[in-house]
Amino acid sequence: MLKLAVCVSGGGTNLQAIIDGIADGTITDTEISLVFSNNKNAYAIERAKKAGIRAEVRSPKDYEKREDFNKEFLAVLKSANPDLIVLAGCLVVLPKELIDEYPNKIINIHPSLIPAFCGKGFYGLKVHEKALERGVKVSGATVHFVDAGTDTGPIILQKPVMVEENDTPEVLQRRIMEQAEWKIMPEAINLIAHNKVKVVDGKVKIV
Ligand code: GRF
Q1: Which of 47, 73, 102 is where one domain is finished?
Q2: 13-23 residue pLDDT tens
Q3: Of 88, 112, 110, 115, nearest to 172 (Cα)?
Q4: Distance 125 CA to ligand 1 centre (A)
Q5: Domain extent at residue 165
């Protein structure tokens, strides 16, 4: 049984896709042990509670020093004894200790086809604004392992989504969520749960 700790900051639609995927059998041999949020107002917390999942909230604002928050963040995650940490719209900069302790055991969903529109400052609507500004005809989403860089870890799955005329960042964001994110996130977790994802020379091989 693959035990997940899912980190969120906002609406939690990707968390919901994972909860639903487990419920409908798209994801098997997997359970969510913990949902962690840095934002007490995140709707993702409600989604976790409704599904009967343990939810913990810790905000960096409530700690005098960042390292105190980092320590607590790490301790809460470890208390769930996760096999995989899933960043599902998580806006917290991960402590280095966490990345070091879970090599190729942390995954993230990014709403573009990496390496386009990624890296520092590319989060939320910004990603889609930049894609539309550039006039790309195709965008999409990427699930990747997390390493010390920003959106630089090995790519697990990607799915393209067509940009349409008159798209706004909000419309494109929604289409990418519906057509790509909510599909490849559950799919990647299911592959990992069944030991089908190997990292060889910094690249993912699906076996
Ligand atoms: C998604 O667009 C995801 O790609 C990005 O943050 C957003 C989270 O949305 N990392 P939600 O909280 O899962 O609804």
Answers
A1: 102
A2: 999 999 999 99
A3: 112
A4: 10
A5: 109-207
